[in-house]
Amino acid sequence: MTEIEKLSFEDAMRELEATVGKLETGEATLEESIALYERGAKLRKHCEKRLREAEERVEKITLSANGQPTGTEPVEGQ
């Protein structure tokens, strides 16, 4: 497992935002900018994967006629 794969979604998003901020300032050298861009792309991919995994686990709460929760069912499409 790589260092990025170990990051939580929140930690990866914070780092991605910081990386984008560094790139936007334009103060990094060309080589630094390339390295930042490559890391940012990996962080973005990791965040997308984490979101997909979370969506797959989301369950819809089923309610009875009187509005009380009766259980859960898988998200549509599964």
From TrEMBL:
Keywords assigned: Cytoplasm, Exonuclease, Hydrolase, Nuclease
SUPFAM superfamilies, sorted: XseB-like
Predominant location: cytoplasm
InterPro entries per record: Exonuc_VII_S, Exonuc_VII_ssu_sf
GO molecular function: exodeoxyribonuclease VII activity
EC number(s) on file: 3.1.11.6
GO biological process: DNA catabolic process
Gene3D superfamilies per record: Exonuclease VII, small subunit (1.10.287.1040)
Record's keyword annotation contains Hydrolase: yes
Subcellular location: Cytoplasm
Reactions the enzyme catalyzes: Exonucleolytic cleavage in either 5'- to 3'- or 3'- to 5'-direction to yield nucleoside 5'-phosphates
Top EC class for this record: hydrolase
GO cellular component terms attached to this protein's record: cytosol; exodeoxyribonuclease VII complex
Function (record text): Bidirectionally degrades single-stranded DNA into large acid-insoluble oligonucleotides, which are then degraded further into small acid-soluble oligonucleotides.
Family (UniProt): Belongs to the XseB family.
Subunit structure, as described in the record: Heterooligomer composed of large and small subunits.
PANTHER family in the cross-refs: EXODEOXYRIBONUCLEASE 7 SMALL SUBUNIT
Protein name: Exodeoxyribonuclease 7 small subunit
Source organism per UniProt: Paracoccus methylarcula
